Amino acid sequence: MGAVVYTGIVHLPTGEHYDWQLGTAVDDLMAADWSHWATTLAALGHPVRLLLLRRVLAGIRTAAELAADEALGTTGQLYHHLRQLVNAGWLHSSARGHYSVPAERVVPLLIVLSGARSRAEI
Question: What total number of domains does the chain contain?
């Protein structure tokens, strides 16, 4: 039935660079239980979480720096959203309250966002 291949070459404002490619057989995707991915996708379904990911990719990485951004809500709300993204694998948290998007998630995140755009935006 074919394959789905996605790739990306990303240079972030932080100077980080990612080259990434993955292919998956359509038969494998069609046979999989898509409900296993619901939590991962649902974590992206909130505007504040998307803004958090954008901020982290731009280099704002500590909880203190993120908390200073009023657009991200109260400290309690911020930690709730951070926890959702960490649990879904979109963010990694170090012991010191630093957050990063795992290297293997940078390009897939940008691909999901690209796929969500309407034809009018392209």
Answer: 1
